[in-house]
Amino acid sequence: MRALILASGRGSRLGDLTSNQPKCFTEVAGKRLIDWQRESLGKGGIQNIAITTGYFSDSFNGLFQERFHNADWADSNMVYSLMQASSLIADEGAIVSYSDIIYSADAITRLSQSNDDIAIAYDPNWLEQWQARYDNPLDDAESFSMDQGYLTDIGRRVNSLSEINGQYMGLLKFTPAGWHIVSHYLDSLSEDARKRLDMTSLLQQLIQQDVKIGAVAITDEWVEVDTPQDLEVASLTVPDFSWT
Hints:
The protein has helices at 33-43, 78-83, 86-92, 105-112, 127-133, 176-187, 191-196, 199-208, 228-237; strands at residues 2-7, 27-28, 31-32, 49-53, 66-69, 94-98, 101-102, 118-123, 142-147, 150-157, 167-174, 214-217, 223-224. By secondary structure, the protein is of the alpha/beta class. It has a seven-stranded mixed beta sheet. α3 (86-92) packs antiparallel against α6. The radius of gyration is 17 Å and the shape is globular.
């Protein structure tokens, strides 16, 4: 299986840190986010890594075997970037990674080993990280529930922690058969709807179409870097990760 890193957006919430470089070039514990990802993917058994680009796309010259460019990166969401690599996923399947996360090689191995055509990685022990990132975790955390290992609800804003059984990590897996289901659904949407669609909304809409989405629990440490506060938390915690 191949891997695809989604790195088209700017990451404007990081302010000046992304004024002259892609978001995933931000350093955490002395290493760029993109390099953390490449290392974990490689150790997880995936050497063939492609990327979707947009903002400062030339920064990625020579770094990846294959690149897919989202020319509309400033006016579209992550699903639209994913669609630019449709040919890759349709042919071989892929592990898809957001470009602003750090995770272990074991997370990649476990997700790769899922028997489901569409699967996501999630953190059942999410609350501690969200408490470090936000004064009120409910300001950012979204609904997440499962039934017998399959996702049943994701992405809603909620008022109670009881509606959250985990948090999606920004790691997905598609087999060619799974991507066929997804692309068929995306083809039914207008171009404007595809551009506006974020990933958790896509997952929720697939659930409503009775599409099975496996949920793989990952208990290794991981971080997401969206804001300067996230970067501070990551810089303090990543050096202590047991797998680094």
